Amino acid sequence: MYEMLSEQDRVIWEEELAQFVPQRIFDAHVHLLDRRHLSQVEGAFLDWKDTDWNALQGCARQLFPGRELHCLVLGTPSPGIDVESHNRWIAQQIQLDSQSRMNRLVTPTCKTVEIERDFAEWRFNGLKPYRLFSVTGDPHQCRIADFLTHSQLEFADQHRLWITMHLSRYHGCADELNLSDLEEYTTKRYPNVRWILAHCARSFSYWPIRQAIPILRQMPNLWYDVSAVTDLRPLITLFQEEDIKRIFYGSDLVDSTFFRGKYVTLGRAWCGLNADQSSLRFPHCDGRPILAIYEQLLAMKHASEIVGLSSSDIEDIFWKNAESAFGVKFGQEH
Ligand SMILES: [Zn+2]
User: Fold this and answer.
1) How far apart are the CA of 304 and the centre of ligand 1, in A?
2) Is 116:128 a contact under the CB 8 Å cutoff?
3) Minimal CA–CA distance to 290: which of 298, 302, 279?
4) Are 270 and 233 in contact (CB under 8 A)?
5) Cα 30 to ligand 1 centroid, rounded to whole Å
6) What is the pLDDT of residues 234-287, one digit of tens each?
């Protein structure tokens, strides 16, 4: 169902990535979607493809030949999505793999009784809130509690849930309000919630994580996923300055990283660049861009080399940290 790899993608896998990516992968940031749950509202993810568990595994077989893949599946935060049907469908999909987990999509309109009912029925791992559901109507400059209510946070605290948090606000993790909210929640108000700050704490450029890491690394119950970060520098900072045990591999597959291009940085600014949809010219080289997920893996590989991570650190990031964090039981075959 997904387009096949290009010849240049294959060269990068075979010559660069095959010796870096471990045999087992636990991806802490993937999305599944049944497009029937989308609705035709402004901002809905109408260009996203249908991705069920089998399609995801089919995609992974192309991308990571011979690897075993398990996932923390996150609800797809498309505005107007049928939250209940979507969550229930994901819960059914991941029953196909006892070593995978899910974070339930949650919006400010989800009542605690509904979350509690789902938790009792299929015991999700945690919650997936998203800034696009902010009650302020401003997804760019909202605070955590604008899109994840205090009663939802109380429920998460009571049940020691994981929360995958894509920080809002222009400076991401370097934003003073985000830092003070995280400080208050992790140390005082919700000490049992376990946070996964998505996209290197939403640091696609070098700057936010360099600013924030001295503060973030002091906070308890904080982890990171490295999904969709294709710039080398935030990965170097994270690998160098944080406890490796607090870092999870994540990909943001399928739609956010299965395209030729990357998330480019220009100074402290960043944006997605899809090479097939832009008019880039390559007059001085063999101009064949590769998939963004391969760009991310290349950046992870180079950051690991620069920081001097051991092969056991790399196994930790790719699956062992998830094994202990999410209570996943693996066999001894690897
Ligand atoms: Zn995502």
Assistant:
1) 23
2) no
3) 298
4) no
5) 6
6) 999 999 999 999 999 999 999 999 999 999 999 999 999 999 999 999 999 999
End-to-end CA distance of the chain: 30
Could you tell me the distance, in angstroms and rounded to a whole number, from the CA of residue 313 to the centre of ligand 1? 24
Nearest to 191 by CA among 213, 158, 224, 169: 158
Classify 7-104+162-167+193-325 by CATH class: alpha beta
The pocket of ion ligand 1, defined by CB under 5 A, consists of 252
Tens digit of pLDDT for each residue in 86-103? 999 999 999 999 999 999
Domain residue ranges in the chain: 7-104+162-167+193-325
Which of 197, 207, 230, 220 is CA-nearest to residue 300?
Answer: 230
Q: How far is the CA of 243 from the centre of ligand 1 (A)?
A: 23
Contacts of 39 (CB under 8 A, 6+ apart): 80, 81, 82
Report residue 235 as tokens. Answer: 């990965």
Ligand 1 centroid to 16 CA: how many Å?
25
Q: Quick one: DSSP state of residue 51?
A: B
SS3 208: helix
Q: 105-110, long-range: CB within 8 Å, 24+ apart, which pairs?
A: 105/74, 105/75, 105/76, 105/77, 105/81, 105/130, 106/75, 106/148, 106/152, 107/83, 107/133, 107/147, 108/133, 108/134, 108/135, 108/146, 108/147, 108/148, 108/149, 108/152, 109/133, 110/83, 110/152
